From TrEMBL:
It is a multi-pass membrane protein. It comes from the Eukaryota. It comes from Hypothenemus hampei. PANTHER family: SEC63 DOMAIN-CONTAINING, TRANSLOCATION PROTEIN SEC63 HOMOLOG. Residues 488-613, 722-759 are annotated as: Disordered. Residues 535-545 have a biased composition (Polar residues). Keywords: Chaperone, Endoplasmic reticulum, Membrane, Protein transport, Transmembrane, Transmembrane helix, Transport. Its main location: endoplasmic reticulum. This is J domain-containing protein. It is found in: Endoplasmic reticulum membrane. Residues 104-166 form the J domain.
Length: 759
């Protein structure tokens, strides 16, 4: 049986191609792009703040896209037209298949199977008088089917083929139809086909790809203009120790606000009259700065609008107010780019690719972080955090700072009894006070815990020089409403005073909680004197180590006291061990050998459980780290920010005394209830006790930052590791000599070499 390829002359296979292609495109487009109206939820509406700025913001968001209704109508019309075309093609294909599959010559002629040729001719003459096209009742299509049926039954060979193969032509050849109309390959149409091919694939496609590429190479991965990023690098390298107001100047000089780089920026004729009046109202604007591009008109305008936004100065609604909304909406991701630039400069400095004198201190990157919640809330840093609540102004602040009580933070205000909270805001109406409590109740209450360990090591709690230290930061997020109306706050639910920073020494945990299914396997034996005394001794040692020092330069007497205390604790531990051994001997003489076997089995099971849990925890954390990072957490109450804002956080480790950054700031974007962050850094080379700080900063609220200190007791690395052949770099050190300044520690210890300082 032969095979034959031919173009589709009847158009049947082309219908199949169009039907399958249209279905593959139309179904996902309908699912993802069909416009949906947001369901009105009365309960959710009640939970929203109804202060005038919030109502104005929601109204502006509704009218921010006036063409949205037209766009939705066009999308719906296009999708409906596609479905109508799909139904029409499905009907055409079904009719085509029905005609091909239901060709029966006996049924068409109306004779019984096996009828003679005389009966076939008689039936044909009778039906042809009715269906012939020349007759009034004629039907050309039906007459052609009748003629084909007559030929199939009057020809002996065709009749045998029909009865044997179901086809008058016999088995025939297998035919493959190409789902393209035949006119495409016709000679007279070749010029038009080639012209269309060249227009699509040689002109239109390269132009589209080139335009997309030309636009995409202007931006970084975070959709910030590369020119803006280069400007940030230049100014942060030029001014490493950058104050907050200069960071605002650099932010306002971003190329996103320049019409030469961004066509969305509008230059209004009214700026000549309105901008000088606005500049007169602002202080410390530094509009006479001569640095490029800080002196450009677009930069001065953006800087003035940012100052007006932070000072909450009303602007003309149709001109400067629209420009303010556009500039403020772009600030959060521009500030995140500033943080990334400072972090990269610090990494380059550590890599010795730029001079140490250009190393930005920790204050610079923190000033950039402070700028984000200032822009989101529309407040200066020195303003009271209570002004983030609705209806709170300078007149209401005096009640929080009365002689009876000093309420400095929102957390302290939330812990008050309901009658005390209401008394402080007695000037507000009941409706206004209700809005205040709605906003306060949805603000974050963060449980901030840290764990310091050395993973993949035999002793994870012991830190040796140059070891990779992992600080696990556990963040638990609750609403502030969880502490409303409580007279006494338990220690486990204590609200941290974020303005002062937490005392991290007592908060650092060195063990990870095991699940209940592992705890049930442990044997519950009684504690012996040996174990209790050793625990008390270890606690005394930990407490002695975690006490902060009086000053960086410790006297010789202080050192001697610390050494004698450690020696005494070691002697007590040895005495406890000897006493414990004697008690163990007496106990073993009275017990059977089976008890010793059981204790050994329990210890081995406990060790196996620890190893099993550690593997399980690492696998779980590794799988979680491979998952995509969400950008949804909690909606921020920010009536002066023109867009909806999600609640994000920065987490990093730094050395406060030396002002250095140890880890890159990790941007937490998915803190809904709980989130775990792993921060890793290399331990210092010199064996000493170091004090580091884990910082948590909000990019949305003022007064919610936290920090915790932890002490890192760095031990000297074992000799078999330090003297390993792969660590010996004698030749390379001679080839690349290191300066004495580079050998000094970049960290600050509790004992900053007092002898050298005295000399």
């Amino acid at each position: 049986m032969g095979q034959k390829f031919q173009y589709d002359e009847s158009g049947g296979t082309f219908f199949y191609f169009l039907l399958s292609f249209l279905a593959l495109v139309l179904i996902p487009v309908t699912i993802f792009y069909w416009p949906r109206k947001k369901k009105f939820d009365p309960e959710a509406e009640k939970q929203l703040c109804h202060c005038p700025p919030c109502l104005l913001k929601r109204e502006n968001l509704k009218h921010a896209e006036p063409w949205r209704n037209t766009k939705n109508f066009l999308v719906k019309a296009g999708i409906l037209m596609g479905w109508i075309l799909l139904i029409f093609l499905a009907y055409k294909v079904s009719q085509f298949d029905y005609e091909m599959a239901n060709f029966d010559p006996y049924d068409i002629l109306g004779v019984a199977p096996g009828a003679s040729q005389a009966e076939v001719k008689k039936a044909y003459r009778k039906l042809s008088l009715i269906l012939h096209p020349d007759k009034d009742t004629g039907n050309e299509k039906e007459f052609m089917k009748l003629s084909k049926a007559y030929q199939a039954l009057t020809d002996d060979e065709a009749r045998r083929n029909w009865e044997k193969y179901g086809n008058p032509d016999g088995p025939g050849a297998m035919s493959f139809g190409i789902a393209l109309p035949s006119w495409i390959v016709e000679k007279e149409n070749s010029i038009w086909v080639l012209g269309l091919y060249a227009l699509v694939f040689m002109v239109a496609l390269p132009i589209i790809v080139g335009t997309w590429w030309y636009r995409s190479i202007k931006f970084t991965g975070d959709q910030v203009l590369l020119d803006t990023t280069h400007m940030y690098y230049y100014f942060f390298h030029k001014t490493p120790n950058m104050p907050l107001k200069r960071a605002i100047m650099i932010l306002a000089a971003s190329c996103e606000f320049d019409k030469r780089h961004n066509s969305e920026v509008r230059e209004r004729p009214t700026d000549k009259d309105e901008m000088p009046q606005l500049i007169k109202k602002l202080q410390n604007l530094s509009e006479k700065n001569k640095e490029n591009p800080l002196c450009h008109p677009y930069s001065i305008k953006a800087r003035a609008l940012l100052h007006a936004h932070l000072s909450r100065i009303p602007l003309p609604p149709n001109t400067l107010e629209k420009d303010r909304q556009y500039i403020v909406a772009k600030c959060p991701y521009l500030i995140q780019e500033q943080v990334n630039c400072v972090n990269q400069l610090i990494l380059l400095t550590y890599a010795r690719k730029i001079s140490q004198r250009h190393l930005p201190p920790i204050d610079t990157i923190e000033n950039c972080m402070k700028l984000c919640p200032m822009v989101v809330q529309g407040l200066w840093e020195f303003k009271s955090p209570f002004m983030q609540l609705p209806y709170i102004n300078e007149d209401n602040l005096k009640y929080f700072m009365s002689k009876k009580r000093q309420i400095k933070s929102l957390q302290q205000y939330a812990k008050l009894r309901s009658d005390e909270r209401r008394a402080l805001l007695k000037s507000l109406s009941d409706e206004e006070y209700e809005n205040v409590m709605k906003v306060l109740g949805k603000m974050p209450l963060i449980d901030f815990q840290i764990t310091v360990e050395v993973l993949d090591d035999e002793n994870p709690t012991e830190v040796t020089s140059c070891a990779i230290v992992t600080v696990t930061v556990d963040l638990g997020r609750k609403d502030m409403s969880t502490v409303f109306g409580e007279d006494v706050v338990h220690e486990s639910e204590e609200v941290p005073d974020n303005n002062q920073g937490g005392d991290g020494d007592s908060e650092v945990t060195n063990h990870v909680k095991r699940p209940a299914w592992l705890k049930q396997k442990r044997g519950g034996g009684k504690k012996t004197k040996k174990s209790s005394k050793s625990v008390n001794t270890s606690k005394a040692l930990v407490n002695s180590k975690t006490k902060p020092e009086d000053s960086p330069s410790v006297s010789e007497e202080r050192k001697a006291k610390l050494e004698s205390r450690k020696a005494k604790a070691e002697d007590d531990e040895d005495a406890d061990e000897s006493g414990g051994e004697e008690s163990d001997v007496d106990t073993n003489e009275n017990n059977d050998k089976s008890s010793g076997d059981e204790s050994t089995a329990q210890k081995s099971n406990a060790e196996d459980d620890d190893q099993e849990w550690e593997k399980f925890r690492k696998i779980h954390e590794r799988e979680k780290s491979l998952e995509g990072r969400s950008k949804s957490s909690h909606t921020v109450h920010c009536p002066y920010f023109p867009c909806d804002k999600q609640e994000y956080w920065w987490v990093y480790i730094c050395d406060r005394k030396s002002g250095t950054l140890l880890t890159a700031p990790y941007y937490v974007t998915c803190l809904v209830e709980r989130e775990t962050v792993h921060l890793k850094f290399t331990a210092p080379k010199w064996p000493k006790v170091y004090t580091f700080t884990v910082c948590l900063r909000s990019d949305s609220y003022l007064g919610f930052d936290q920090q915790k200190d932890f002490k890192l007791d760095v031990k000297e690395a074992p000799a078999e590791i330090t003297k390993h052949p792969q660590w010996e770099f004698g030749d390379s050190e001679e080839e690349n000599p290191v300066d004495k300044a580079d050998q000094e520690s970049e960290y600050t210890t509790d004992e900053d070499l007092p002898e050298e300082d005295e000399d």
